[in-house]
Amino acid sequence: xxxxxxxxxxxxxxxxxxxxxxxxxxxxxxxxxxxxxxxxxxxxxxxxxxxxxxxxxxxxxxxxxxxxxxxxxxxxxxxxxxxxxxxxxxxxxxxxxxxxxxxxxxxxxxxxxxxxxxxxxxxxxxxxxxxxxxxxxxxxxxxxxxxxxxxxxxxxxxxxxxxxxxxxxxxxxxxxxxxxxxxxxxxxxxxxxxxxxxxxxxxxxxxxxxxxxxxxxxxxxxxxxxxxxxxxxxxxxxxxxxxxxxxxxxxxxxxxxxxxxxxxxxxxxxxxxxxxxxxxxxxxxxxxxxxxxxxxxxxxxxxxxxxxxxxxxxxxxxxxxxxxxxxxxxxxxxxxxxxxxxxxxxxxxxxxxxxxxxxxxxxxxxxxxxxxxxxxxxxxxxxxxxxxxxxxxxxxxxxxxxxxxxxxxxxxxxxxxxxxxxxxxxxxxxxxxxxxxxxxxxxxxxxxxxxxxxxxxxxxxxxxxxxxxxxxxxxxxxxxxxxxxxxxxxxxxxxxxxxxxxxxxxxxxxxxxxxxxxxxxxxxxxxxxxxxxxxxxxxxxxxxxxxxxxxxxxxxxxxxxxxxxxxxxxxxxxxxxxxxxxxxxxxxxxxxxxxxxxxxxxxxxxxxxxxxxxxxxxxxxxxxxxxxxxxxxxxxxxxxxxxxxxxxxxxxxxxxxxxxxxxxxxxx
Length: 668
Ligand code: RUQ
Ligand code: CUA
What we know:
single chain; mainly beta; Methylamine Dehydrogenase, Chain H; Immunoglobulin-like; seven-stranded mixed β-sheet; globular; binds (dicuprio-$l^{3}-sulfanyl)-sulfanyl-copper; binds dinuclear copper ion
């Protein structure tokens, strides 16, 4: 039975002439056949009958909704996506760039871990960059990335920079969106873990990073008997120098916090610009010890009905830090807890119950906190909170003397969401969308009357969600991605562990629904950011030739065409090499066993996408050279032998011939 579907007929009406033209071209012109009659099609070519699509739908078991979803996401060759998504690679430590609505992966950006495809972590500058993220204990080769944040100007994504965090080894990295390249990693021994990172203030003056698991500040040791006195949390405000595109550690500062588990963070905007909000869990101050006679951490930390939303005046804190009212712990200026209390930098508002997610509304008047062990989202009224703080209308203090506001007086209200609300994003029509972990749904609710209007099933165990331009002062609506931690029954089995599942939700439809399932076979991606594609202005080639991507300046060792050479200085061999289709110059490098090679390699290419790579066998040398890029790599040649070197990208018809040798002569 054929169902008649208007859009199917429409699609066929436009597709039919092309099908016929193709069929005619393949079979040779047939002057006797009238176009559109069955006789004009070659044997085996699809006849242009309006039943075809219906037959295809029937054969594949597709519903009208399925075909609508396909038409909303299918992106024909040559057409570009409307949005870019930057998703965290979780404990893969990289960033995944995805196009929306096609959900095609466009790039992996190496950040905290080597990314061999781009030579990231294999040449001197990127090796040094990775090592700059090492901490006092030693070398780090992975990260647990959670929350990417796009740079903002006036509360809008400006498409210039992306920041990402590492929860496990508290670090923040800067990615330059000119070329989607990591340029900086910063860390401090002040804290030993984090979670409330990265979030930016509305003009990207600061990048927020707050600790998660309390420890003695600065990396000291203290036993749990001293927990209440010696353990602390902290929030770091990393100063971003937009001109230089770098975090300025010397201008950054932190605020000491009580030893609760500070969780997520968000910066105020518009009326709440200058303030920042951090939710917390474990205000019970438990530390576990299930084999030491203590209750398990998770039950001990879930006793209180209320934890504390931290309300922080970062603008005033920056003034206090500038006035020198700080102590330096390890290498970070820290505003002490008592100073923060005395200067009214820190105020608490109760929040139910072991909450998760803290998201400021686009207009800046509200902040939404998910209940996690509660069934509500709570919408705080920021102007009211600021009035209560100004009037010092407190109801009490926490054990450290931090003033507490009255819960009821500080909220706009609560929305009954469902089991396990976590994170909230927004659209352009006054709706909020909350991920509901236990129920595996996205709840759509109205910010005006705090009522749920719809629920979209997701598959399964949704964590974060992201909406188009959703963290800005003017979200776009249109698309939302549910980031699901489980993918049971969605994809073919690949062993005991399935991929994560990104589900694209169409917000334009009368009823929001899933229109694409994208498996993401990497570490748990946590959060993402979605930006209008036309806000990004990536470069096409490095200019001038010989540019170092980490500085975006001509490298001191850049090699000009015609000036290639090899210079020996004792056992140091400097090789000034260029690459262009289809040769390296020089293509033979002679060295002696035990020498140190300093390879300076410039791509002379100036055509978009004309890339080369350099592999030198057995020496762990893997360089990717984008057009105009310069790279330096230093390595030892400890063993005599003949080592082929070659280009790793199929760059031209003579790519296989783009090769040479490293000859290492025996000693003596
Ligand atoms: S957290 S599933 Cu690391 Cu962002 Cu909420
Ligand atoms: Cu250059 Cu292949």
